[in-house]
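A note on notation is needed here, since sequence and fold are reported together in a single record. The reader may check this reading against the record printed directly beneath this paragraph.
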Amino acid sequence: MSQNKRMTRALGAAALALAIGFGAPKAMAAECGRNGEGFEAWLSSFEKEAAAAGISKAAIDSSLRDVYYDRSVISHDRGQKVFRQTFEQFSARMANSFRVSKGRALLQKHAALFKRIEQKYGVPGPVIVAIWGLETDFGSYLGDFSTIRALATLAYDCRRADKFRAELLDALRIVERGDLDPAQMRGAWAGEIGQTQFMPSSYLKFAVDFDGDGKRDLVHNTADVLASTANFLHGYGWKPGAGWDEGEPNFPALLEWNKAKVYSKTIALLADKIKGGSDTRASGMDNPVEKAR
């Protein structure tokens, strides 16, 4: 099927009113798809939507010029099984002795930084380090997927098109404000970015330039990564000095980080261990996992 025919077929969708930014104009959005057949036409329509949302042509072109439909992203989206495990199964693998010992070492190495972060946001170092370790093994593995390509694929896919179209627009805004260029935006299959795996919407809302270099860089800059993670929790009501285990005041903030309770409880457990609690329930090493999507 030619690109012109695919575009004619795809542009039969109804107009969707998207509340983007402050009074951004309405934009036409091509219908979603269940395979790659209409992706090129959809992408052309999305480019117009992004322009109508106020994103510059330069940011749109640099972000989307090499994007294609990625079937491996869809395969990952359909195959999420890790959160079907019990807390005992999941935490035994993930809150392991490697992450505890490495976490304690990093807590000591960056003690001054964590002190500054806690003074500003109220979130203690062990919680931030636990998230850092579970998400990417402390920045050692951020993922291999192109963020823009993954988000575009999921934005076109019918399962959760609206959610990921909004995230794709936010990813383009990150490029436009100069925090990262598209080539630097690589991570997990669902579009997470950086050492603690922020979705683009959270990146825009909570990423901070903690070292004052003019960029909010959650891929390379440790200070920005850790402070932004604390700012996320602070933004969701973290209470300084209160506990974070299930049933305690700060556990709801951990659920905002990851709505899968098995994951949030594992963050709390690993933070307890890093802080100095018992390390008898887990050993060995396992790969970091993405958020529940």
